[in-house]
Design goal:
Length: 297
């Protein structure tokens, strides 16, 4: 095969994106038989099968994932080109997609990004929130340019990505104003009180529970939250003591109307930026990473 057939590639792209031949056929306004035939022709031209067929369902194999990754970028750029050609505002010249994991405090993400946004008038920023693994999958498919997370990419991973350590913060504990007296004997005052924990996927949960055990502290765990903002809302309503990075302690106290009852330095919450290696020298990536490091420094 000397030249790629983009018509066939588009059929494959829609099948992979939509999850089935029938769904792709519906979008294309053709019969499933036509779509299936185009896929078979494409696979024969490539010399590889792109899907594993299990119980009448299609699953991308390793070759299929590679082709889909590149096809996604090709057709996204094509759609963006059409959008630019028809745009009334000719100054908009790119989009930049930022993924934020559930565990990252939103105000901290805002602090990392807002200066770059102010200086980037010609960029449309798109923010997506989700679990770490889901965002990493989107990064691998070039659907996301940068991820802000509380952990980096695991060493030895096959993902073509770079992790940047942004900095770290100690942990502060907060309680409703009615429980302000807890600060007098902190951290021993945590014994027996209701405590709200971040979910097990958070980068600090294991360290926090180990710290409680090591210090023979036995609070009553009443709830766990994957979403850090939801955790703070319940804490502000008096459901329990909760913790947040000391870097945003003033914001948490003011915004959620709670009091800081103490800080621990034995545990630090770490923050990372993750980007595909093809984006490593991107101006916006460098700007956000530099801003975040300055804020946490």
């Amino acid at each position: 095969m000397h030249q790629l057939n983009y018509h066939h590639l588009y059929y494959f792209y829609l099948i992979a994106r939509e999850g089935s031949i029938a769904s792709a056929a519906k979008l294309l306004h053709v019969t499933p038989q036509t779509v299936s035939g185009q896929l078979s022709t494409f696979e024969k031209q490539l010399g590889y099968s792109l899907f594993d067929r299990v119980s009448k369902r299609l699953y991308l194999n390793s070759k299929g994932k590679l082709v889909y990754q590149h096809a996604s970028e090709i057709f996204q750029k094509g759609a963006r080109l059409v959008e630019l050609l028809h745009a009334d505002n000719e100054t908009i010249d790119q989009t930049f997609v930022i993924g934020i994991t559930d565990a990252i405090p939103k105000v901290l993400a805002y602090d990392f990004v807002h200066s770059t946004m102010v200086l980037s008038n010609n960029v449309r920023f798109i923010f997506r929130e989700g679990p770490f693994d889901s965002l990493i999958s989107d990064l691998a498919l070039n659907h996301i340019d940068l991820i802000i997370a509380d952990r980096g990419v695991a060493p030895g991973t096959q993902l073509n990505a770079s992790s940047y350590f942004l900095g770290e913060s100690h942990l502060s504990f907060f309680a409703s104003h009615a429980q302000l007296s807890l600060h007098q004997d902190f951290p021993h005052s945590l014994n027996g009180v209701s405590l709200l924990l971040p979910g097990i996927k958070s980068g600090i949960t294991l360290g926090l529970t180990s710290w409680l055990e090591a210090n023979q502290l036995h609070p009553r765990i009443v709830a766990e939250f994957d979403d850090s903002a939801l955790l703070k809302v319940f804490g502000s309503e008096g459901f329990g003591v909760f913790c947040a990075p000391s870097a945003i302690a003033d914001h948490v106290a003011d915004f959620y109307n709670v009091s800081c009852i103490g800080e621990i330095t034995d545990i630090t919450e770490r923050f990372y930026a993750i980007t595909g290696k093809n984006r490593a020298q991107h101006m916006l990536v460098n700007s956000i990473v530099a801003e975040a490091k300055a804020l946490l420094g």
